[in-house]
Amino acid sequence: MRKRGMRAWSFPHSANQECMVSLVPDPSFSEQGPREFRDLTIQWYKDYGRSLDYLETRSDLRADRIGFYGLSLGADAGLLFAALEPRLRAIVLVAGGLSTSEETSETDPFNFAPRVTQPVLLVAGRDDFRNPLELSQKPLMRLLGSRDKRHYVFDRGHVPPRQQEVVRETLDWLDRHLGPI
After folding, report:
1. What is the reported pTM?
2. Among 142, 22, 45, 145, which residue's Cα sits nearest to residue 94?
3. Beta-bridge mates of residue 123
4. Among 54, 116, 124, 136, which residue has the fewest nearby CB atoms (within 10 Å)?
5. Euclidean distance between CA atoms 27 and 88, whole angstroms
């Protein structure tokens, strides 16, 4: 059986050709145990790094203006990637936070968050069942190594009900840290 993981994709953020790279998780990840999840996370990071390598070869893109956008599991992976990847200049985590379940030390966001130094925007729900405000989101914000961080809390649960709020917050953050368009 072939293991599957995340697919990386990128798109220009503006006419100035800043880049965003996003990850789309494979739903089969939840059927795996901690060691398999660790191995899968390592593979995701390798694939992500290759995506960034490719972006650096593109003369029509600004490789010095790469941002990360992750939603839910992608936000969890984003903490690890931001801590390990110096090419990322701005981070947007939607529906993310510290894990409230047991993780292996190799993939526990708790061990990576202090090493994240890029500007970080966390967009998360006040009533998020997966990443509770007091147990997951606020501790992450305290733990992040970044001096420039913002926590935008929306009403409701895990996924924002009004995407225009997320788009506005995200674009404002990216304009501020990758340059206005």
Report:
1. 0.82
2. 22
3. 94, 152
4. 54
5. 26
